[in-house]
Amino acid sequence: MKKFLTFNKARIVTPLLLFGIMLFMASCSSSATQEKHIEAISTVLKHQLNGPDLEVIEWEDPAKIESYYEKLYKSYFTEEMYTSFISTYAFHYHLTAYNGGYEMKVDHIEVDSSETTEGTYDFKATLLTEKEGSEQQTAEVSGRVTFNSDDKITSIRYLDESGL
Q1: Per mean pLDDT, which range of 95-104, 130-139, 155-164 is the poorest?
Q2: Residue 3: inside a domain, yes or no?
Q3: Residue 125, Cβ neighbours under 10 Å: how many?
Q4: Helix/strand/coil (H, E, C) string of the chain?
Q5: pLDDT by residue (tens digit) across 14-46?
Q6: Which PROSITE patterns match (predicted)?
Q7: Is 113 domain-assigned?
Q8: How far, in Å, CA of 44 to CA of 30, rounded?
Q9: What is the pTM of this model?
Q10: How far apart are CA 10 and CA 4, in angstroms?
Q11: What pLDDT sits at residue 91?
C-alpha cells in the first residue's frame, strides 16, 4: 500500500512541477520581450526627439539622408511601417525645431505595456525645449506603439504633443 501512495504522489507532483517550470519560463520570456520592446521605443524616440540634427538638415543629397535614416531606424520597423515612419515622422520634429529656432532634448521617457493588447505600449516623453534668449520649457509627447511577433514596430501613433 505504501508503494501505491508514493506512486500516486509522483503522478500528481510531477505534472504540477512541470507546469510551474513552464509558467516561470514563459514569464521570463515575456519579460525579456517587453524589455526589448521598451528599449526599441526609447531608442527611436531619442533619435527622433533630440535635435534638431543640424548636420542632417544641411545635407542636400537625398540618398545620403535615406542611408542615414535606414541605419538609424530600419531595424526597429516592419518594411511598411518604416516607409510610413520616414515619410511622416522621422524628420518632422527636427525640422519643426530648426524652423522655430528651438533645441529639444529628451529628459525622460516612460513606457507602459498595455494590459489589454499584447505587444502594445503607451509612451510619454518629456522634452526640454529651449530657444536662444528664452527660458527652458518642458513639453510632452505621448503615443502608442505596437509590435508584431517578430518584435518589429507595426504602428506608432502620436496622441498628444502638448507644447510642441
Answers
A1: 155-164
A2: no
A3: 24
A4: CHHHHHHHHHHHHHHHHHHHHHHHHHHHHHHHHHHHHHHHHHHHHHHHHCECCHHHHHCCCHHHHHHHHHHHHHHHECHHHHHHHHHHCCCHHHHHHHHHCEEEEEEEEEEEECCCCCCEEEEEEEEEEEECCCCCEEEEEEEEEEECCCCCEEEEEEEECCCC
A5: 665 555 555 544 444 578 889 999 999 999 999
A6: PROKAR_LIPOPROTEIN
A7: yes
A8: 21
A9: 0.81
A10: 10
A11: 86
Beta strands 120-131 and 102-113, pairing class: antiparallel
Q: Are 144 and 155 in contact (CB under 8 A)?
A: yes
User: In angstroms, rounded to a whole number, what is the distance separating the alpha carbons of residues 109 and 119?
Assistant: 18
> How many structural domains does the chain have?
1
Using alpha carbons, list the distances in angstroms from residue 111 to 45, 119, 128, 130. Answer: 11, 12, 18, 24
CA 69 to chain centre: 16
Q: What is the CATH number of the domain that holds 96?
A: 3.10.450.230
Of the candidates 52, 54, 49, 53, the residue with the CA atom closest to the CA atom of residue 127: 49
